[in-house]
Amino acid sequence: MRVVTMGVHVLDVLVRPVDAIPEGQGATLVEDIRMTAAGTAGGTALTLAKLGATVQTTGAIGADATGDMLVQLLRGAGIGTEFLVRRADTGTSASVLPISSGGDRPSLHLLGANVTYGLDDVPWDAVAEADHLHLGGPELIGVEVAARILHFAKEHGVRTSVDLLAPGVFGSFEQIAAALPHIDLLLPNDDQVLGFSEEDDLVAGAKKLVGAGAGLVAVTRGADGALLVCADGTETVPAFEIDVVDTTGCGDAFSAGFVLGIGLGRTPSESAVLGNAVAALVAQGLGSDHGDFDLDAADAFAAGGTRRA
User: Fold this and answer.
1) Distance between CA 9 and CA 159 in Å, rounded?
2) Which residues make Cβ contacts (< 8 Å) with residue 76, sequence separation at least 6?
3) How far apart are CA 39 and CA 9, in angstroms?
């Protein structure tokens, strides 16, 4: 399966455990500090590559040391990076994530070059030749730009998926409405569904997005698993029982598993099981790239794992 991931790329610096910030010039010892590629495009690319997809990724990053590290991490995971655009006047997006011993994940974030990506940066030929286009964070590049890219993909027979980035509280329906008719798979979390649909009920919000053109909405709900909504009805798919270390990248991991499952001809329910399994594997360690697994290992975990009631 040939996939182009497009949109948000972030270098994450994760520190664990951080249960309090030392006062003044104080210091404290931690167990782990890691740097990983992340973002709704970069993080999803990592897991897609693990699962066996051929992945090229595109977005805007800085011509800086942070960008160099991000490219190195993506290439090391077997991801094609030739379509990443380097900006000399804007830094690479990055986050510092102090992970608590209980798994809480506050963030200190630099938005960086992601918002500068535009139509002149799109590798149109690569998109047309792909089996699937995954666009992460369309609200950052503008809905009209996103709609044109997704429409082009659909015209060339490319399946499309979209994951949102902004918290639901910052969302509005007009930020995504024009893109919805060109989206086969919309992959938001529950907070984003409520915010971007401007509805108070999760199912009603997802149905509004489907009614406006999205083919299927697969909603991630953390420990409550996934909610699938399409024109034919709704279905819930439970999450797996695990000991959570860090939830960084779990939404991106779900997106990767779900997209790959659909690409392999699995049903939406089966694809959500794979997405939940991959997210569970990632959540058992630190960072978006945690876990040495492939599709067979993810399927084995899904078959043998305990699902939450």
Assistant:
1) 21
2) none
3) 5
Q: Which of the four CATH numbers 3.40.50.620, 3.30.750.24, 3.40.1190.20, 3.40.720.10 does domain 2-6+38-88+118-304 have?
A: 3.40.1190.20
Burial 63-101 (b: 16+ CB within 10 A, else e): bbebbebbbebbeebebbbebbbebeebbbbbbebbbee
Give the three-class secondary structure for 14.
Answer: strand
Query: What digits encode the pLDDT tens for the residues 58-115?
Result: 999 999 999 999 999 999 999 999 999 999 999 999 999 999 988 788 899 999 999 9
pTM (2 d.p.): 0.95
Phi, psi (rounded to 5 degrees) for 93: -65, 140
Checking phi first, is residue 290 left (phi over 0); if not, alpha (psi -120 to 50) or beta? beta
